[in-house]
Specification:
This is Alpha/beta fold hydrolase. The chain is α/β, with parallel strands linked by helices and 267 residues long. The chain is 39% helix and 17% strand. Strands 1-2-4-3-5-6-7-8 form an eight-stranded mixed beta sheet, with helices on both faces.
C-alpha cells in the first residue's frame, strides 16, 4: 500500500498513476481519495495524477492530533516534498479548497502551477458580514452532536445532499464505507475547524491561476459562493456544471475532466 510517512509519524495513503506534470487531488471533509476514481485514469494519460487521503481519512493514519486545516496544509506540503513534485496543479474539492488556500498562506505559491477549486465557499461559517456561509453555530453544533451519537445515520442523510439526482444503492454504499472509516472523534474535530476557518483574507493575494468548478444545484453550496470567489481571486475563471450539485467530478465526470484538462492546456 503506497504511503508517505510524515515527520510526526503519521502515514498518508495515496494513489498515483501516469507521468508528466503532477496534478494532485485533495478531498473534502470525511471523504477520501476514492472519490476521485473517475479522474485518476483520465489524467494519467497526460499527467502524473495523484490523490491522497488526508490524515484521519480513508486509509491514512487515524492520529489523535492534527485535525485542523493548518495541519492538513502542512501535511500537503510535506507530501509534495517527499514525492519530489514540481510545477504542481492542486485540485481541492470542498474542504480540500481550504487546505489549498491555507497551503498558499503558509508556504506561498512557489512550485504551484495552478489550482482548481470544486464547490466551496471562502468560509463555511455564517459570519456577520458573510451571509452566504453554510453553517451558523446552532447548525454546526447540531452536526457535531449527531456525528457523536449516530455517525452512520448522519452520513446517510448527508451524502445524498451532495448530488443532484438520487444515488443508486451501490454508490451510496461505497461512499458510506469510505466516510465511516473516519472515527467520530476525528470527524467532529475536523468538521469544527474546517467550518470556522475564514479564508477571505487570503484570496486577494493568490496569484496562481484558478479554475472554479461549481454545480448549479444548490443543496449545499450556493452559486453565490463561486461568484464571490471569482470577484476576490485575481486570476480566476468560473465554470458552472448544469447537471451537478456538490460533486461535478462524479456527476459530470467526462465534462469535468475535459474542462480541467483544457484549462491546464491553456496556461
Amino acid at each position: 500500500m503506497p504511503e508517505i510517512e510524515l515527520r510526526d509519524g503519521a502515514k498518508l495513503y495515496y494513489e498515483e498513476s501516469g507521468t508528466g506534470k503532477p496534478i494532485l487531488f485533495v478531498h473534502g471533509v470525511w471523504m477520501s481519495s476514492r472519490f476521485f476514481h473517475k479522474q485518476l485514469p483520465y489524467f494519467a494519460e497526460d499527467y502524473h495524477a495523484i490523490a491522497i487521503d488526508l490524515r484521519g481519512h480513508g486509509q491514512s493514519s487515524k492520529t489523535e492530533n492534527g485535525h485542523t486545516i493548518a495541519q492538513y496544509a502542512k501535511d500537503l506540503h510535506e507530501c509534495i516534498e517527499k514525492l519530489e513534485l514540481t510545477d504542481v496543479t492542486l485540485v481541492g474539492w470542498s474542504m480540500g479548497a481550504f487546505v489549498i488556500w491555507e497551503y498558499f498562506h503558509q508556504f506561498g505559491e512557489n512550485n504551484i502551477r495552478a489550482s482548481v477549486v470544486v464547490d466551496e465557499l471562502a468560509s463555511d461559517f455564517k459570519w456577520n458580514d458573510f451571509e452566504i456561509g453554510a453553517f451558523d453555530i446552532e447548525a454546526l453544533t447540531g452536526l457535531m452532536r449527531d456525528m457523536q451519537t449516530n455517525q452512520r445515520a448522519l452520513l446517510e442523510g448527508f451524502l445524498p445532499l451532495m448530488f443532484k439526482e438520487a444515488l443508486p444503492a451501490a454508490e451510496l454504499n461505497w461512499m458510506l464505507e469510505e466516510t465511516t472509516k473516519v472515527p467520530a472523534s476525528i470527524a467532529s474535530a475536523i468538521l469544527f475547524d474546517q467550518s470556522i476557518i475564514d479564508c477571505r483574507p487570503y484570496l486577494p493575494h493568490i496569484t496562481v491561476p484558478t479554475l472554479l468548478c461549481f454545480g448549479k444545484e444548490e443543496k449545499l453550496i450556493p452559486m453565490a459562493a463561486g461568484e464571490h470567489l471569482l470577484e476576490q481571486l485575481p486570476y480566476a475563471r468560473l465554470q458552472i456544471f448544469e447537471n451537478s450539485c456538490h460533486c461535478p467530478f462524479l456527476e459530470e465526470s467526462e465534462g469535468f475532466n475535459h474542462v480541467v484538462d483544457q484549462y491546464l492546456q491553456s496556461l
